[in-house]
Specification:
single chain; alpha+beta; 8-stranded antiparallel sheet; globular
Length: 633
């Protein structure tokens, strides 16, 4: 392939990276991170309202009202400011946030945040205010007059009277009561204990939680919410709830052993599940462990996981031109958002800066940052999470049987794919049930059509999942006429394999996608780089990666899809290989070898069936003698 200068193929990306307030910050020391918080918050200052209670940074909609959305935008920077100020650093404009608490909780003020109702977004934001009161009371509480403090305490106390969703929101009640107690205001011990007892019922074992009992999701809400808040409690109130604090610490130690596999050696984390717009909140768990004094891994490794992740994000064009962190992932993108993402929501990313509350001589800051090569590699199986991981150069890969994420937008992409990669991310459909494969953007997943390809249904709402013969396994059963069981496991370097048992009461078309890869600079590609053959092979190579699929049964056709723009979380424009074939009524098996490497010159190793797959085939009585195994791609 022709070598294309970086400026010629991604000049716009490089330009927008320079708008990232973290760009050019080395992010290696405590002082660097303090500068990072200040630089991230300062672009918001021109949008602070006259009374300092609201922040107006956009006009996009969310499922709650503008007053709560503007309050949210104003409060979320406290997640970074509280440890910054509590850690002894200065921020000249910190007075805005004390005035926000005074104005926003005064019913007579024109910028009053409003009365708190059941299942109210205002209850969510009480957690940020509470962290500020706990860590930096001299900046966020003491400047208030006695009347203002009484107003604030009365308003915050409403969280004990109103209904909360039966999930991680219960921790907001816990944190708010701890904050009220810390400043000598009325609080509710019984409500706090009841919330903690209920949160205990979400625990699954092995360090894993699910976020409530309604849905089965083990995504970033386990580390960045449930573990995070529990560790904050363990640090600030171990005397009040010693048994809960001990459990939170023990569970974090268990979870850390698995969660380290979510991070690649370049600092990128695996995008998976909802709320990807919170960006570097991915590493907030490690900061919470350090804050609580829990050496869940060697301090040098914890430090490396946090700082490399922040440095990776410092090189992404995630901000708008004025440096404001908008909705999106690696670039601004509303298509992948949730209904609860308001302008300003993304600043929950600042939770990772909790480590600024630690003094300079804390073991976290004193430790030498461990080299990324020291991270565990090879195949890692996590029984409680139902995942298999593999780390390679520039990539962390997760294989999963899927989860039930039906309450969230684009849940088929966020929970129903087979493989999630830090190097390739995943794509969300711009037309999830349409005819065009470029709009459905089903990478690393499958879809079926019963009408010859006019309408497609993407794999979603996984009704059963777990581990089977050491492999992630999941069941997709959209209706009584169709059930697809899928198993996945890693193969040789860069490869993974998928087996699908399809039981259908009518003939189907089945489409299966591989990794979407960046097509920036695709005008420089040659026809040799696109291969789509009739013998069950689909391969595509761009300037940055190689991706391919091989149909081991040899019954499907290969093609390469130029995917609709802004569907992939990592890259605005992508290419994707996929296989397309017909399946008769009855029970059929499909087997697929999938390759992906963030290196266009990668040479795929000869493919061989993993022992787990051979065991499954033996159990199911499958004859693999006719499968088209290969020497490469």
């Amino acid at each position: 392939m022709a070598v294309v200068p970086a400026w010629d193929r991604d000049a716009s990306t490089l330009c927008m990276v320079r708008c990232n307030p973290l760009h050019a910050n080395p992010l290696t020391s405590r002082a660097d991170l303090a500068r990072g918080v200040s630089d991230l918050v300062r672009p918001l200052l021109p949008y602070v309202s006259d009374g300092s209670a609201r922040l107006r940074v956009g006009a996009a909609g969310m499922h709650y009202g503008a007053a709560a959305g503007e309050m949210e935008a104003m409060v979320r920077p406290i997640w970074g400011l509280a440890p910054l100020l509590g850690g002894g650093f200065a921020f000249a404009e910190a007075g805005h946030w004390a005035r926000a608490l005074a104005s926003g909780t005064d019913p007579a003020h024109p910028e009053y945040w409003g009365d708190v109702g059941p299942r109210d977004q205002r209850s969510v934001e009480m957690s940020g205010l509470s962290l500020g009161i706990l860590l930096a009371p001299e900046h966020l509480w003491q400047p208030l007059s006695e009347v203002e403090q009484d107003n604030a305490a009365r308003w915050l106390g409403a969280i004990n009277r109103e209904e909360l969703p039966d999930n991680n929101w219960l921790f907001f009640r816990v944190l708010t009561n701890l904050a009220l107690r810390s400043v000598g205001k009325p609080w509710d011990l019984d409500a706090t204990r009841a919330a903690l007892d209920r949160l205990d019922t979400f625990y699954l074992g092995g360090g894993y939680y699910r976020d409530g009992t309604k849905w089965n999701q083990q995504d970033y809400y386990t580390p960045m919410a449930l573990h995070f808040y529990g560790l904050v409690l363990a640090k600030v109130a171990p005397d009040l709830f010693p048994e809960h604090a001990a459990r939170f610490r023990k569970r974090a130690r268990l979870y850390a052993q698995d969660f380290q596999h979510w991070f690649a050696d370049d600092g990128a984390a695996i995008p998976f599940g909802r709320s990807m717009t919170y960006r570097f909140v991915q590493s907030a768990f490690w900061s919470a462990c350090a804050f609580a004094g829990e050496e869940v891994l060697p301090w040098g490794r914890i430090k490396g996981l946090v700082l490399r992740n922040l440095r990776w994000w410092s090189e992404r064009p995630a901000m708008d031109r004025d440096g404001v962190l908008g909705i999106g992932y690696a670039y601004p993108n509303l298509m992948m958002s949730e209904a609860y993402n308001a302008p300003g929501s993304s600043y929950w990313a600042l939770k990772t800066f909790l480590i600024l509350a630690l003094p300079e001589d804390h073991p976290f800051w004193m430790a030498e940052e461990e080299a990324p090569e020291a991270l565990p590699d090879g195949r890692i199986e996590t029984a409680h999470g139902g995942f298999v991981f593999r780390r390679g150069p520039g990539e962390a890969l997760m294989l999963t049987g899927g989860q039930d994420g039906r309450e969230h937008r684009c849940h088929d992409a966020k929970y129903g794919r087979f493989a999630y990669s830090s190097a390739f991310a995943f794509s969300v459909g711009s037309d999830a049930f349409g005819q065009k494969p470029d709009r459905t953007a089903i990478d690393n997943g499958i879809a079926i059509s019963r009408d010859g390809g006019t309408g497609w249904i993407s794999r979603s709402t996984i009704t059963q999942s777990g581990m089977d013969l050491g492999m992630p396994w999941g069941v997709w059963q959209p209706d009584e006429g169709l059930r697809i069981d899928s198993w996945v496991d890693v193969g040789p370097a860069g490869w993974h394999v998928r087996l699908h048992r399809i039981t259908t009461d009518q003939p189907l078309l089945v489409a299966e996608g591989g990794f979407s890869i960046d097509r920036t600079g695709d005008g420089h590609m040659t026809p040799h780089d696109w291969v789509h053959l009739a013998d069950g092979l689909a391969r595509v190579r761009s300037l940055s990666a190689l991706s391919g699929l091989r149909d081991l049964n040899g019954v499907r056709l290969g093609e390469v899809v130029r995917v609709a723009p802004n569907t992939n979380l990592r890259f605005p424009r992508t290419l994707m290989p996929r296989l397309l074939g017909a399946v008769p009524a009855g029970t059929s098996w499909l087997a697929t070898a999938v390759f992906g490497a963030p290196d266009p010159d990668a040479i795929p190793a000869p493919f061989a069936l993993p022992a787990t797959v051979r065991a499954l085939c033996a159990r199911e009585g499958l004859d693999t003698s006719g499968w088209r195994l290969c020497d490469g791609l």
